[in-house]
């Protein structure tokens, strides 16, 4: 086993950065090459059975972070350690083996399942690719068991169906079954219920939560919706323009948040608790173009608490309470 491993964590991302070269038209004729820092100096650690919620507006770098953690992109800088091994050094063959350990559930169950495959084929295909099960009969049994585990019972009722013969919620259950059939240790769910009817979202989320706990998975749930993240996540990281601006245990973050952006995001979440105090501050304007990030704190043009220093200097991350980190000039380390 590699010396990189800290056995308490399934996944560790250390100072990861991802740059893309993009062409930006600065007038109608000339296209200028610029660097888009999609993910900038991100650190994450996830233990077995834990879920980290990644929350932020679209374009903040959540999905790029997920693709880095799954080995679908190579980081420009930094290391990603999964179960003791640095996946950023993997070659193609090692990446194929790693895919067995790291699975993703996509937003749209209508697109993530091959419409020409019956459900049994959708589930058996990854078993064939990764050579699991000694024969077709054994693979079919594995497929039946996982279907029943995700609540599609009796499994025989569903195996011969095509995806279009199922409801959106049933399809998302099949997508979850497909992600779990290889017994992964890392699961990433990208907006797992945003395409589903509101009436079936709670059932899918509670299934996901149950599977993560029962199978001791390290999980990441990506969403723009803090109420969903609150339901499913043990820790929450708030992203803005490629950086994590606040990260803490979820309930701690909901009750006591320190970053003005987190504050503004929480304003948008209806809360049934009558004692829950909603601040009246808001975000100004739109998120800037990520290829032209503002100097200093990149949130400063929208921040109602912006100070002179915020326009010039990037804030450093501080641990404001145990396990609660914030990237904002308003705050200092609790011991400094
Ligand atoms: Fe607002 Fe300044 Fe904090 Fe940035 S560093 S969030 S601009 S107060």
TrEMBL record:
<dbReference type="InterPro" id="IPR003439">
    <property type="entry name" value="ABC_transporter-like_ATP-bd"/>
</dbReference>
<keyword id="KW-0547">Nucleotide-binding</keyword>
<feature type="domain" description="ABC transporter">
    <location>
        <begin position="24"/>
        <end position="266"/>
    </location>
</feature>
<dbReference type="InterPro" id="IPR017871">
    <property type="entry name" value="ABC_transporter-like_CS"/>
</dbReference>
<keyword id="KW-0067">ATP-binding</keyword>
<dbReference type="Pfam" id="PF00005">
    <property type="entry name" value="ABC_tran"/>
</dbReference>
<dbReference type="InterPro" id="IPR050319">
    <property type="entry name" value="ABC_transp_ATP-bind"/>
</dbReference>
<dbReference type="GO" id="GO:0005524">
    <property type="term" value="F:ATP binding"/>
</dbReference>
<dbReference type="Pfam" id="PF08352">
    <property type="entry name" value="oligo_HPY"/>
</dbReference>
<dbReference type="InterPro" id="IPR003593">
    <property type="entry name" value="AAA+_ATPase"/>
</dbReference>
<keyword id="KW-0813">Transport</keyword>
<protein>
    <submittedName>
        <fullName>Oligopeptide/dipeptide ABC transporter ATP-binding protein</fullName>
    </submittedName>
</protein>
<dbReference type="InterPro" id="IPR013563">
    <property type="entry name" value="Oligopep_ABC_C"/>
</dbReference>
<dbReference type="InterPro" id="IPR027417">
    <property type="entry name" value="P-loop_NTPase"/>
</dbReference>
